Amino acid sequence: MATLHNAGPTARDEDRTIPWHRARPEEARARRRLRRRMVAGLLVVSAVPFLLMGAGAWLVFRDLAIREALTLHRTMARAHGAAIDAYLAEQLRTVELIARTHTLRELSDPATLREIFAEVTAVHGNSFVDLGVIDAEGRHLAYVGPYDLMDRNYRDADWFKEVLAHGASISDVFLGFRQSPHSVVAVRRDLATGPWILRATLDNRSLYQLVRSLAVGTFGDVFVVNRDGVYQTPPRSGEVLGQSGVVEATPRGEIRDERVETASGAVRQVSTWLDGDRWMLVVRQPEREILTPVTRAVGDGALITLFAVLVVFVATISVTSRLIAQIERGDRQRDLMYYDLLKSARLASLGEMATGLAHEINNPLAIMSAEHTNLTDRLAELRIDGDGRAALDRSLQRCSHQLERCGDITGKMLQFGRRTETRPSATEVEPVLREAVELLSRRAATANVALSLDVESELPPAWLDADELEQVLLNLLGNSLDATPPGGSIRVVATREGERLLLRVADNGCGIAPEDLDRIFEPFFTTKPPGMGTGLGLAVVHGIVRGWGGTIDVESVPGEGTTLSIHVPLAAEVIAG
Amino acid sequence: MSAPKAAIRLLMVDDELDFLGAVAPGLERRGFEVKTAENGRTALDLLAREAFDVVVLDVKMPGLDGISVFRRISELAPQLPVIMLTGHGNIQDAFETSRGGVYEYLTKPCKVESLAETARRAHEERQLAGERARRADRERAERILAERPD
Asked: How many CB atoms lie within 10 A of CB A147?
């Protein structure tokens, strides 16, 4: 449906089309580009802070978690180092107590030694595996235990040399004669005849249990290594006496922490020397495990962030769409206004032209009319009879008729240009409408077209001129009658619409081609065959309606019909100002 | 064309000489004594020298236009009926200020017949008004005379 407006925008702007809109795909492209940019821009602006916050939180909490873990590990290493020291010292003291409270002779007696071993086992459980008394040459003087070791000579054993030298010894774990990891606790007693040694084999399972009980977390590991990095207690993966790879870098008396790369990933390691600086306690925990709570928290945060970004995304799309729609509406409004302005400017300049033309023609017409009168007067005075007289009379009559026709055209041109006197006043429209419809009812009946009038009851007076209204209606109805085929109908409706009177003439005739719609109010524009219309009817209607301060719109669908709507101010509104 | 009792003296003012030349004979045949002026200045000079019964003024003229001439006439001879003639139709501007005093507006092209008729009507109404005024004056004078104690 094409619509033409000649005054300001109305409620039906949404339905209106502007001819040049179809031909401007670059505007649609520009809007799509704008939409993309706005979405991208808003997304970056809203998502980047989230991402920065997430990254910052990860770094800060990661650092915090590792620091916390290391603090725990250090505390544990210190405390547990002390516990292990105390455990070993206690074993040593037990052996020393036996050596001090018994004589060599007593201990060299296997029966006595067995009794003592039974007592020790009763007190210490299974910590001690065996007990032996050895002379300064490394030979067994007595032995009690599960193995047959009486013939063994320990002269070359490291622990033997150490105990001879220092009076007491706790050995590294070694396989020894028994081919099972064990360690030896030994003390030296000195007699006038020479030194003797009381030796006990420790069941390392007690130590292992003690050390293993210290492990942190699910994947944490605690073990003891000697100076050469050899496992003294079993690690989580590996064997006692295996090579741990831990190097002797920890300064004596200090706790050292470091990050170590292992086959199964990075671990955090805290190490400290045990009493005597022979063994080192190592506490390890995989970095991944330390960071598990942080990873989980950041993961949760990422989920929340993702949700937030999604919300922002949806909001962005929605806001952008609304903004774009608003821009589109604005553009459309602007185009419509521009279009209307263009149209009314064109009609106004046409009006100027028509007025000027009419004026220029009216003067010669006036002279011709006066001379026509002179000719007629003179002819009456002359004595001419017969055919010549009749022919002259006919010629003069034709001249007179054409002069009137010209005067009619220039008059209409002046009306279109709104250069005629117009005196709107408060007017009841119903009688005028009835009269006009009545005037054309015969013609409508002849053309077999139903002509109906529908006036709202108690319609207030409108601000217009009754004669002009009749002229308007006769023009519009005449056009409709010309356009409507037999069997068709024409409806005239007058209603109140807000502060205006709406006068509508609707037919179901042939309609107006869209390309003609823009031009129907222009003077001399006609689609009727030559000689059938001057093209001034709608121009005059336009001029009259504008003269009242009203507007006129046309809607038409080719083949379906045409509706002309005239809005005129109500008299009460004009008078109220 | 029967001769009227006395010719109506009409002053026709228009810048178009052809128009004056064409209209004047027609009017004269219809019982008018026509004088023409082709501009406002000449018209005012003529009005100062001679007596007229009706004036027909073209609205648009170079120099002193019809509206200005009309204003001068309403000052000098307020009783003199004036008919305005225009080829333009735009008398909106004049309308606002001087509609009241103008006897009639006619739009070109108008027939000599209707111009003559309008001018005659204007003259007759003016005469009637004049007679009524004179009668009123006379009656007033008589009343005054009658009431005067001798």
From this structure: 13
Tell me whether residue B91 is exposed, middle or buried, using C-beta atoms within 10 angstroms of its C-beta: 0 to 12, 13 to 18, 19 or more: buried
Q: Which amino acid is at A315?
A: A
A362, A370, A420 member nearest B22 (Cβ): A370
pLDDT at A473: 93
In chain A, residues with a C-beta closer than 8 Å to the C-beta of B16 are 363, 367
> How far is residue B28's CA from residue A455's CA, in Å, rounded to a whole number?
53
Residues of chain B with C-beta less than 8 angstroms from the C-beta of A417: 89
CA A459 → CA A149, A429, A496, A569, distances in Å? 134, 8, 7, 12
Is A562 found in the same domain as A442? Answer: yes
Across the strands, what pairs with B105?
A: B84
pLDDT for the residue A518: 82
Does residue B8 register a pLDDT over 90?
A: yes
Q: Are A429 and A376 found together in one domain?
A: no
For residue A281, is it within any domain?
A: no
Cβ-based contacts under 8 A for chains A and B? 71
What is the tally of structural domains in chain A? 3
Chain B residues touching residue A403 (CB < 8 angstroms): 109
**CB nearest B90 (choices: A374, A403, A419):** A419
Q: Judge if A50 and A112 occupy the same domain.
A: no
Pairing of the two strands A551-557 and A221-226:
unpaired
| Element at A561 (helix H, strand E) | strand A561-569
**Cα dihedral A217, A218, A219, A225 in deg (nearest 10):** 60
Residues of chain A with pLDDT under 70: 1-24, 176-178, 248, 418-422, 531
Could you give the CA distance from residue B104 to residue A324 in angstroms, rounded to a whole number?
A: 61
Helix (H, G, I), strand (E, B) or coil at A119: helix
Do residue A517 and residue A447 come from a single domain?
Answer: yes
Note the pLDDT of residue A9. 40
Residue A169 has phi, psi (to 5 degrees) of -160, 140
Measure the CA–CA gap between A43 and A32, rounded to whole angstroms.
Answer: 16
* DSSP codes of every residue in A271-335: EEEPTTSSEEEEEEEEHHHHTHHHHHHHHHHHHHHHHHHHHHHHHHHHHHHHHHHHHHHHHHHHH
Best of B111, B114, B115, B117 to disrupt the A interface (most A CBs within 10 Å) is B111
Mean confidence (pLDDT) of chain A: 85
Question: Do A553 and A444 sit in the same domain of this protein?
Answer: yes
**Which of A11, A4, A6, A5 lies closest to A498, judged by CA?**
A11
**pLDDT value of residue B150:** 57
Question: What is the arithmetic mean of pLDDT over B101-113?
Answer: 85
Helix-helix angle A292-381:B112-147, to 10 degrees:
80
Which residues are A139's β-sheet partners?
Answer: A153
| Structure token pair of residue A390 | 């009749």
pLDDT value, residue A81: 84
Query: CA torsion, points A85, A86, A87, A88, in degrees to nearest 10?
Result: 50
DSSP A244-268: ----S-SPTT-EEEEEEEETTEEEE
**CA gap A472, A485 in Å, rounded:** 22
pTM for this prediction: 0.51
Amino acid at A475: N
d(CA A292, CA A221): 17
Q: Is the Cβ pair B90, A355 closer than 8 Å?
A: yes
- Polymer length of chain A: 577
Compare all CA atoms of chain B with the CA of A407 and give the residue at the minimum distance. Answer: B109
* Residue given tokens 């409806």 in the structure block: A491
Residue A145 lies in domain: 102-205
pLDDT for B149: 63
- Please say which residue of A322, A348, A381 terminates a domain: A381
